[in-house]
Amino acid sequence: MTEERHWLAKIKPTRNSDHPVIVAWRRRPISSRVGSRRFRRRLLIATYAAWLLVAVGVKFLSFGPLSQFWLSSILLWSNLILQAIWVVRRTIINTPKLADAELDERMVQIRNAAFRTAFRSFAVVALIGWIVAMTAIQLQPNSQGFLNAYLIYFGVALLATTLPTAIVAWREPDPTEPEPSDAPSAG
Fold first, then answer.
1. Where do the domains of the chain lie?
2. Which residue, of 2, 16, 24, 146, has the greatest Cβ tally within 10 A?
3. Model's pTM, two decimal places?
4. CA torsion angle for 76, 80, 81, 83 (degrees, to 10)?
5. Angle 44-47-51 (CA atoms, 0-180°, nearest 5)?
6. Residue 66 CB: number of other CB atoms within 10 A?
7. Percentage of residues in the chain having pLDDT higher than 90
8. Which residues have C-beta within 8 Å of that of residue 14, sequence separation ≥ 6?
9. Interatomic CA distance for residues 64 and 184, integer angstroms
10. What is the SS3 assignment for 95?
11. d(CA 68, CA 93)
């Protein structure tokens, strides 16, 4: 009986006629789906995978006629675009844009925990990246060695700017749906 009621609840009359229309899915814009943990995790994986594809593409292009300037420009612009996806998006956990003073205690704790975790992780990654980049320059003192170092530097820079937001996006649970009210809507 409850399944029947649930199915019947999806039948709604349209505004212009009395004929019922079955609502097959909720039409929600992509901005409201950001609250989904699954969507956030997919976006996170896609962001870092896209950067890896750019890095592999730049490395592949380095064997061609492109100069070091153009390869560095491709890396710079791809980093800026991918950083903008995460750094500019403060609404990744379905919260409005709030100043730091307007955050409630839970949001402050989440932010601080993300920064602590990001700092611990980033310190290790930066140290390893620096050692690997210096080794790459020593082993290949030509333009390929410098390109390898640039790839590592840009990867670490991307991680530095996006890691706290990525940690919050990965950890934060799905938002709870508000309970539908039984009162008829006006309009």
1. 35-90+101-171
2. 146
3. 0.65
4. 130
5. 145
6. 13
7. 5
8. 20, 21
9. 66
10. coil
11. 39
